Amino acid sequence: MSGTETTETTNLTLVQAVRDALHDEMARDDRVVVLGEDVGVNDGVFRATEGLYDEYGAERVIDTPLAESAIAGTAVGMAAFGLRPVAEIQFMGFIYLAFDQIVSHAARLRTRSQSSFNVPLVVRAPYGGGVHAPEHHSESTEAMFAHMPGLKVVIPSTPYDTKGLLTASIRDPDPVIFLEPKSRYRASREAVPTDSYTVPLGEAAVRREGTDVTVFAWGGMVAPTLEAAENLAEEGIDCEVVDLRTISPMDVDTIVSSFEKTGRAAVVHEAPYTAGMAAEITATIQEESLLLQEAPIERITGWDTHYPLYASEDFYRPGVTRIEHGIRNAAGF
Amino acid sequence: MRGDSAPELRQILDEDGQLRDDAVVPDLTDDELLELFRMLKLARHYDERAIKLQRQGRMGTYSPIAGQEAGHAASAFALSGDDWILPSHRADIASRIRGLGLEFHLMYCMGMERGNRIPEDTPVFPVTLPIATQIPHAVGMAWASKYMGSDRVFMPYFGDGGTSEGDFHEGLNFAGVFDTPTVFFINNNQWAISIGPDQQTKSRTLAQKADAYGFEGVRVDGMDPLAVYQVTHEAIEKARDPPEGELRPTLIEALTYRFGPHTTSDDPSVYREDEELERWEQRDPIPRMETFLRDTGRLDAELLETIEQQVADEVNEAIDIAESVDRPEPTNMFDHTFAEPTPRLQAQREELQMLREEYGDDAFTH
Q: Which of 114-153 (B) contact A at CB < 8 A?
């Protein structure tokens, strides 16, 4: 943690931590504006912008027409012209309408202009499944954004990290895709400092120390991974759990040093298997530590299918049983 | 001056269900008029039951339709033969009129893919949730159909919010340029979740946006079933056989209102006033149509009771079907990614089967 030293905390859910970060940054910097569908009078469909409209008014908390491409595109313009926009896409499944603006323009303007323009933009979107949502509401296609140069991709898993990472994202001079695991929005509370603080982008966190297998996860997969790790401890498998927190840029040092301690690894993500982030992590480990590798690296992921409607989602999304199974494979090889 | 091109609001029944002085009743038989009324009643009753199913945890998120029955039902009623609709997530009754049983929509809302497995010869496109994306699809289908020498008409449904999306403008522009037989139907229910008309557009009407694309825009009282039927009927005729010098497409703006929330997850009291709702409830399409049918001797208490019973039976039957179909086999998700599964998909399918056998299905669901 960096920034103001504080001892005062409040117990917040993850979605309240989003709101807290937005509130504090709007108070601190009047260049920060929030825009998107229903973010104003309605306080956001998940209440992530609760109270902001009342406090900061319609000029800074902007209810837009229903148009994802225009939300992202105008936010690029605002950012290039000196504001610090935080754009909300209501569900990640609708972000593709904004994809061109994000990847062709937000990500590229610095390069295109040789740094004469930059895009200090945050695009927030709830992502992932586990809440029985309708079609297009449960995907986790973070790898598409991680694949694009010029974008940072941040995915918190706890309320504390959410406030610190979102604050850091808003202050970052480059565009950040900030993906919020909606299965965790109200799943737990945690003591969160009332003052502002940042959690640096690009740094992973070791959530559980262990000696046998390193398990990498982020966002909505961290909680079931920790549960699996506790269950496996009873079987005598001691897992180290690393929460990536930022998948681009990736914290190679933490990934490699944890792997070198255990020599075995599994990666857990909700996104499909092929060309997912697990492939990137696996390749990185092999480049850096091939001779220390004692087992194939397990990829515990969604299947290469579309995220099914909710009656089947438990069979798509890795749960505790599948995570345990994969870790056992890595441990027992 | 702004709004110069705003078309007038078409109406046949006034708010009390009386024929307006200058109005002509559409050319429908008594049976057809009663069937249209039955569809309005079916939509209202289905809506009430669907909301209860969601509240009871028997179904996922649902988008209520109350207030908009006429916009969906009377427009679909004007289609014929194998004319297609491309429904929005609220157009269940339009799909029902085009031949898709209500159980399909229920299954979809219960999280089952088979709700979107449209039976052969049913001219209904699967529901799509991203907004306005079905508009270019409708233009493409109409274009293809015209190329193949058919006189079918294609009608996408969407809301006022959808008119702000790029796909709306790009789709309508193509429709004009390529003169496709497409009728664009806006159910302008005034609210895109919490965003009201003034924040959605500064055009005085949505219908006049058609001007920019070179074809006609029509504005109709979307809670007047007879007027909705009539303007849609005229647009369909024009799409099939346009008068010399005119284009086939039409943009219809049906002025309506959703009485309930955007979805069962939404609370409209946060962003709109009760008195606005009360004002719109005065225009409720169902009593208006009932008054008209009674006053013209087409409907009496006995027939009304019969209709209400038929409607209740149909909804009960749809719920029974939806709740009694087998839950989807989890491996179904592998069957429809490609025509032929890839080796990797085949391996993943086998892996899931192995995990189910080793741990049992209960291990996945808690």
A: 115, 129-131
